[in-house]
Amino acid sequence: MKIKTLAMGSIGTNCYVVSDDVGNAVIIDCDGDPRPLYFYISEFNLKPTHILLTHGHFDHIGAVEAVKEKYGCKVIAGKDEFRILTDPAANCSIYGGGAITVLPDELVSDGDSIIVGDMKFEVLFTPGHTEGSLCYILGDNIFSGDTLFQGSCGRTDLATGDWSTILRSLKLLRDLPGDYTVYPGHGPATTMEIERSSNPFM
After folding, report:
1. DSSP readout, the chain?
2. What does the pLDDT read at residue 106?
3. Which of 27, 62, 104, 150 has the fewest CB neighbours in a 10 Å radius?
């Protein structure tokens, strides 16, 4: 398995391409100019089948429609995130480059699994940054979106955000057994052990 990080869009959102040994691939969040993503997929002859969204803010969905059209990907999001995905005011896209809406192909719930090739992504419901924010767990890796960053956590002052709720989600992550590599929506990767010991919000 390989995890590629591409910082994309106007505020450097992390787009992840996760692939197995035979080229099956999943894209997690994507914004901005998708050409670097296309180049990487072509270079390694990958076959992306799914776009997994951690949440619906503009900087995580800006390239979704273009990427879906190019590869025929199935778009997956949390069951409580439909409003953010489809309301340009709530996802803040109208305040930037223009209104964006995304209609997901499937809405998932806590405990659901998405299986692609040899990869099994488990859905963990972590609201707070938005009411439908998700993390995806793949083995000992967590794709945390804007719930957990290195040394910090996501803001809660935008539509459907809630501070007490994100603190509960951070506690849920903190209390997961074992260690994980954490791949956040912005900034560098970290580990759960580091965040447990040094992140003041956990």
Report:
1. -EEEEEEETTTTEEEEEEE-TTSEEEEE---S--HHHHHHHHHTT-EEEEEE-S---HHHHTTHHHHHHHH-PEEEEETT-HHHHH-TTTTTGGGTTS------SEEE-TT-EEEETTEEEEEEE--SSSTT-EEEEETTEEEEETTEETTEE----STT--HHHHHHHHHHHHTSSS--EEEESSS--EEHHHHHHH-TT-
2. 98
3. 150
Token pair of 137, please? 């767990």
* pLDDT tens per residue, range 145-164: 999 999 999 999 999 999 99
As a whole number, the mean pLDDT across the chain is 97
Concatenating the DSSP letter of every residue in 172-197 gives HHHTSSS--EEEESSS--EEHHHHHH
CA distance 202 to 198: 8
* Cα dihedral sign, 183-189-195-199: negative
What pTM value is reported for the model?
A: 0.97
